[in-house]
Amino acid sequence: MTVRTKVAVELGIIAVLTIAFLLLFPHRNPWFDVGLAGFALLCIGASAGYTKNVVWAASPPQPGRNRFSQCVKITMWVTVPTVVGFLLVGVILAYRNGGWPAVTERILNWKILAVFEHISRGH
Predict the structure, then answer these.
(1) What angle is formed at CA 61 by the lines to CA 56 and CA 64, rounded to 5 degrees?
(2) Can you say whether the dihedral through the CA atoms of 81, 82, 88, 89 is positive or negative?
(3) How far apart are CA 97 and CA 51, in angstroms?
(4) Residue 44 host element (H or E)
(5) What pLDDT is recorded for position 79?
(6) Closest C-alpha among 13, 106, 84, 2 to residue 21
(7) Which of 18, 33, 62, 109 sits in a 20 to 30 Å window from 43, CA-based?
(8) Which DSSP string corresponds to 24-83?
């Protein structure tokens, strides 16, 4: 089994277990989620050596002079659809709860701009 296949299987198992957990335990103490997040970070730290020496070592180095531009493009391909998806969910929920005035109130909220500004500074 290749490293790529192993990573794909691992991510698939994590996705299935996450969905099962959320469906089985929809109401839980927020501190439990914080504890699970801390445990996940410990697991990531414990497997960092394996990830560096096996997973990333299996990937060939990417040639190219303009790596920054390529990284920005990839980041935009990941970020923009996510932001659009969140805005779309916000529009749908607001429209269901109060029509177009609620959509305007939710989408044109100054807090959204503050979050995007905060994210754009890398915080």
Answers:
(1) 145
(2) positive
(3) 45
(4) helix 30-46
(5) 87
(6) 13
(7) 62
(8) H-SS--HHHHHHHHHHHHHHHHHTHHHIIIIITTTSPPPP-S-HHHHHHHHHHHHHHHHH
Mean pLDDT of the chain: 85
- Domain parsing of the chain, residue ranges: 1-60, 65-123
Please identify which residue in the block is written with the tokens 């754009």: 120
Q: What is the C-alpha radius of gyration for the chain, rounded to an integer number of angstroms?
A: 20
**28-37 long-range contacts, Cβ below 8 Å, gap at least 24?**
none
Task: Dig out the tokens for 89 from the structure.
Answer: 């969910």
Q: Is the pTM of this model over 0.90?
A: no
pLDDT at 95: 94
